[in-house]
Amino acid sequence: MSKTSNATRLDNAESLSADVIVVGAGLSGLSAARELSRRGLSCLLLEARDRIGGKTYSKAPPGIVSKIDLGAAWINASNQERTYRLAREVGADLIEQNTSGSVVLQDIDGTRKTFPYGEIPPFDEESRAQAAHIRDQTELDCQTLDINNTQHPERDNMTFADYCRKHTTNEAALRTANMWTRAMLGQEATDVSALYFLSYCRSGGGLLRMRSDQEHGGQYLRIRQGTQYLSTGLASLLPTDKCAIKLKTRVTSVQQTSDGVSVSTSATATASGSDPPAATTYRAKKLISAVPYSMLTSIAFQPQLPDPKNILAKSFNYNSYTKLMLIFRTPFWQKRGYCGLVQSFTGPATIMRDTSIPADNTWVLTTFPCGTSGRAWQALGRKEREQAVLEQIGQVFDAADIVKEEFITSIGHDWNEDEFSGRGCPCVSLPPGVLGRVGGALREPVGNIHFAGTETAVVWKGYMEGALRSGERVAEEIVEALGMAPSHKI
After folding, report:
1. How far apart are CA 386 and CA 240, in angstroms?
2. Which domain range does residue 332 map to?
């Protein structure tokens, strides 16, 4: 049965669209739908985009065989078991992240420093000691943090920059810490709550694990077919007699009723030229919000969401986080002894990584212009942005002429212009003073409305693993709320 005919059947069943409506067909929404369908509940997924996958978004540039990840890109096999299991289930080919060769630091004055992967950059002796100190202090505080306890007022009322200044005044160490928040959240250390950043790191096992490109780390494995393959694969596993997906369907309002929810939608305008579905209303017993929290402000809720939810929705924010992938004829950086990892205090890209697909003879450097330097870069025209990053690549690998000869094309996605991601990526974050005040409401249901999404996860927040786990959590909430026996799934 096709998904269209299935949606019609669900719409006509007992005058309900489904047992559960899921807003958003990214990994969290798809994960929830799969778990609910396993328990015999029907699900209708409403997706505003003309594709499924959310922040898993993979495209092949013209003339290139391989699909390039414009959004989420990495997993690991040891402590991201949901994602790894899904990758195996859908037959994804895995690529180990390259860490063979030197890392490059582009210092504040533009000079290059090279060093082995896993070591501290070759600053002067005092700066190296202070960079190690702030790294170790952050790691210690991550590891001893109870992620479910948001009542740490001292840490929540200061920025991560303030937290770092309590432990060091060394400028190189402070710039290094600011690079962590830029690379991981697109935020300046002056803008994010210290408690939120520590909690974010704790969800991934600590700062060191979350930043690692090696086994057990956050950036260890990639998907040859692109990570959107995980989303389309998961969608294909949904039973067609229980689940349907409607694309180009924007949820505009949600009204709670005595026996469930009533959801109004409108058609999403697209550039494809195809006719979107007509605006309509659906009803269900339960609703799952599987969109970024910042998107909740675009939906009219009746009755209104409680104040803590509204405060979170208005406070969660992105700064600037963009990916630009540059494709070359050969992996010239590898031939020159570099692993492809670059850390930069100057930008425009704060971080670069080798995201090549050797089996396809596709050689790629993924660059991350983010934070303040990324915001300035975004103000340039498309060609100027490309040229600025190419010049930076030439500088950091001391290979300006080679870059010009080897460059083929680039592909990117400006997540700050992506309305349905909440205009940002990879994960929303909070400024000081919010998490301790209303963080306890983050995962709390509101009547028949339940909240998923990677930012609600307590394990691997901001990653695909967190999204999948959040879907499982809300599915279990709904099963129990409907009086069904829990699955006792670990």
Report:
1. 43
2. 60-80+93-98+323-413
